[in-house]
Here is the input.
Amino acid sequence: MSHPQPPQRQPTLSETDRYTRTIHNVALGALIACPVLALIPPRKLDFFTFGLIGTTAYSANYLTRERTGRSIWQHMGGGKREVDAVTAESVASPTEQANLSRELQYAREEMQRLHAESKVASEQSHAAQSAREAWKSQREKEIQDDLDVGKGFGEMITDQIYEVWNWGKKRDDEDDG
Here is the structure.
């Protein structure tokens, strides 16, 4: 003899909006309040602190998922991002499709920007390496010239220290004597 359950009533649109707005505000509050509570004295690493850290992470994850449609872990996965977007487009609503296409466009632009930056950095690195090689060859030539003149390594080191100390001015042998 089971008792029949009364039919469940569906929440109205205003109730759903109020609920999502409340959850959003609670997540924002927790994202700010939990780290503050963890940092006020007495600072100690106990179960309460781990709870605050976990609540902060959960709130940040909720807000990220609410804004982008993907959790923090999915953002960190990154490698199969386009595949996920294509698979999700087949089952997503029009607003989710718009969000996914916007996110995909942003990712493409970011990849292009990063590729351009890495290309510039590579060119700068190559230029710096060639300048370094030119300096090394010039320095080796100067050392060989000094050795040919008859200077010892101690005298070359002293000259180099003098040059650095006097901001690049070379020592004149005529002024020494």
Notes: The chain is about 80% helix and 0% strand. Residues 94-149 form the longest helix (56 residues). The chain has a mean pLDDT of 84. Residues 20-76 form one domain.
